[in-house]
Amino acid sequence: MSYIRIRKHYLHLPYILLGAFEFGILFLSFYFLENLQQAFNISPASHVEYSPALALIYAIILSCGSLAMGVYLALMREGFLAMFFRTLVAYCFLGALALTILAEIWPYFYVGGNNLFWVVMLSTGFTLASRHFFSKLVNSDQLTRKIVVIGTGASARQLQRDYEKDKATLGVKVIGYIGSGQSDVASQYCLEKPTDWLSFCRENRISEIVVAQEERRKSDGVVFPLEELIRCKLGGIDVINAVGFYEREFNQVKLSLLSPSWIIFADGFTVSKTRDFAKRLFDIFISVALGIVLLPFVLFAAFLVFIETGRPILYSQVRVGQHGKLFKIYKIRSMRQDAEKGGKAVWASANDSRITKVGAFIRNTRLDEIPQIYNVLKGEMSFVGPRPERPEFVAELNESIPFYSHRHAVKPGLMGWAQLNYPYGASVEDARGKLEYDLYYSKNHSFMMDFLIMIQTIEVVLLGKGVH
């Protein structure tokens, strides 16, 4: 099993193990530092007692920096060099900055400038070595879980496209697709129907069978092998439908495969008054803290907008909130005053000519979104949740996209799962793609998932991802 489920959210086990191993490296770096300084005759800038508490805080902060910069996915998707530069940002910028700020607030955590440099360098060297070994290990054929897909129709073809696009980051290897007759899957990926499914799986070291047939009785030219799948299941071979496979491996709910019965009978989509209360307290605490910290930046952005294009500095828009309730969000204006002079809602587009020069800057840095902290304090929004859309767009999307209204089952948020995993949405098709991630969040949301989204949003802000 290459995944683990924590509070309903699927996480790939190899990354969890790598993160835990690196956490240990970061923790122990403090205790190696003193010996390293003696070996290279380095005089520390100040005497620091390397206590376990200090080492623990150091390890937590740098581990969060790694998550924030997406170093683990970058290692598999973009290669070692991209991961190396992200690690430098995570450790030398985010980590060092956080430790410096923490030391100013609480002097007990002061490490010393020279000491901090050497311990970060030591940590960087060890973690880069561990990630290099990890990348070789997870690509090993002996450790990869092999699966076979039943079906060669449209659903199987969609699964094949998505798998080929992201297979470097997945913990599985699709060895083929089983079907007969007309096939949407390329012939080189198709396999002959086995006469004995259990023997076939054991001979080819198949760990799991994914059912991607549109019709379970007879589809893609294959009579559904019910008895054979029961034998495989009892023989230790996992069997999963395509919706569940997408949810686990891609962390999304695939709309093209979704049926109302799945929503009704699937675990998740739960409502908890205790969690809602805890999330509300968390939202209030974070809103007040961030409001105080970010106030100077907001005033600076407001001043720039006023200098460039004058008033109004803030503007409001009606958005659709939880259970379809309408409310007004507030933003720092990033477009011309006449951006919608016709009074009709218009999708934002890439290189939108309505965006001012200052507006492009505050959009890239997300400063224009900061006033929505007020909406969070009012309880109309949460820090994490699906981004709220305008009612004009919602009416159109409800007609075009099945299950779209169900994204409003939870409070909208300043940041969300779809924003991390899908580019900026500026069309009906983009809204469909985002909905697949919003439904995953609605089904599986938890405090832990909210925390991961908040941490990973730092990468979106720093790298200016998904901005139009």
TrEMBL record:
Residues 279-462 form the Bacterial sugar transferase domain. The chain crosses the membrane at residues 12-33, 53-76, 88-110, 116-134, 281-307. Its main location: membrane. InterPro entries: Bact_transf (IPR003362), EPS_sugar_tfrase (IPR017475), Sugar_tfrase_EpsB_2 (IPR017464). Keywords: Membrane, Transferase, Transmembrane, Transmembrane helix. It is a multi-pass membrane protein. It is found in: Membrane. Belongs to the bacterial sugar transferase family. This is TIGR03013 family XrtA/PEP-CTERM system glycosyltransferase.
